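Colleagues,

For the teaching module next term, I've prepared a clean inverse folding example: a structure given as tokens, and then the sequence designed for it. I'd like students to try predicting residues themselves before seeing the answer, so please don't circulate the second half yet.
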């Protein structure tokens, strides 16, 4: 009988092996690219990039860590004047709505900071740059990381935040950007509050080697506004009190004047009718009334002069407020 021969499979050729390795290599490359997509994007964005001196100076002044500086530079930050700021910070991808000193375009698409040349507002650019960098950093957090940091931010907001100005700012974001409130907390708390709970301080250390420097910048330029606001408020209080005093004294002078006019008429009648002794008896009291009236007129005039001096001082401070506000606005607006 013929013997059955054993089946021998064909050996794969070297070409088949090569094709298999290429396919596996491509798959592995795609997997690596997917996992490290942000790193690849960062490499491309930073390839050949050299930060302008003003930008690197701000990063230094903010004590940005290498991690933060990388996030900042990936967005090719620009310090722009008022003429260009409106165009750079009005597109739909900009996250900022309430704060108009800078903007971050989502998906690491750019950071723009308003140029501020008023020496009284030194620190505005630094705080704004740090604020926008933290928006870009927040964008990079994973879902798990966001859940963790959001819980820390909300706990601080609900239980420990005491600053009324920042509370008001957060309330404004609740109205204008309800979906981005925690994102804004992430930037505001990190740049404008000097002392945070230990877990938040530990978190922000990955972005700043000395976060207190950024908070100090914020305090410094906020004081330029708050001190003037307090001065105007005090002046307004003084003016209100003086106005009441002047109005009351003017009302009294009106009554005194009517009494003096009446007395003068009676004395004139006595004199014309020949009642000289009675006339002479009434003159001293009449003169005392006139003297008292003139004294009060002088007092009122002194109060009016004081009032006008306070108005001038108050308006000078208000003008400074307007100048500062205009320095921080891409379009100057009148402050009442």
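(Answer key — instructors only)
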């Amino acid at each position: 009988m013929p013997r059955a021969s054993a089946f021998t499979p064909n050996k794969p050729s070297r070409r088949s092996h090569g094709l298999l390795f290429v396919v596996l290599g491509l798959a592995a490359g795609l997997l690596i690219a997917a996992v490290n997509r942000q790193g690849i994007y960062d490499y491309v964005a930073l390839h050949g990039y050299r930060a302008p001196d003003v930008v690197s100076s701000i990063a230094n002044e903010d004590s940005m860590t290498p991690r933060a500086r990388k996030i900042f530079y990936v967005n090719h930050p620009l310090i722009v004047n008022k003429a260009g700021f409106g165009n750079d910070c009005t597109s739909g991808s900009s996250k900022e709505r309430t704060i108009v000193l800078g903007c971050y375009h989502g998906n690491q698409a750019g950071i723009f900071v308003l140029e501020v040349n008023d020496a009284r507002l030194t620190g505005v650019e630094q705080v704004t740059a740090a604020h926008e960098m933290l928006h870009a950093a927040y964008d990079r957090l994973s879902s798990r990381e966001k859940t963790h940091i959001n819980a820390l931010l909300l706990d601080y907001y609900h239980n420990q935040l005491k600053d009324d100005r920042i509370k008001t700012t957060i309330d404004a974001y609740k109205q204008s950007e309800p979906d981005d409130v925690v994102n804004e907390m992430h930037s505001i708390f990190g740049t404008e509050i000097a002392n945070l709970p230990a877990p938040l301080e530990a978190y922000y250390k990955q972005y700043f080697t000395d976060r207190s420097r950024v908070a100090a910048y914020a305090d410094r330029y906020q004081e330029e506004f708050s001190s003037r606001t307090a001065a105007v408020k005090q002046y307004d209080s003084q003016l209100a009190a003086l106005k009441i005093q002047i109005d009351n004294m003017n009302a009294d002078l009106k009554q005194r004047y009517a009494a003096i006019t009446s007395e003068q008429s009676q004395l004139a009648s006595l004199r014309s009718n020949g009642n000289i002794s009675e006339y002479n008896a009434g003159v001293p009291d009449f003169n005392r009334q006139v003297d008292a009236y003139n004294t009060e007129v002088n007092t009122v005039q002194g109060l009016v002069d004081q009032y006008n001096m306070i108005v001038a001082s108050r308006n000078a401070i208000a003008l400074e407020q307007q100048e500062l506000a205009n320095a921080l606005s891409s379009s100057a607006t009148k402050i009442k």
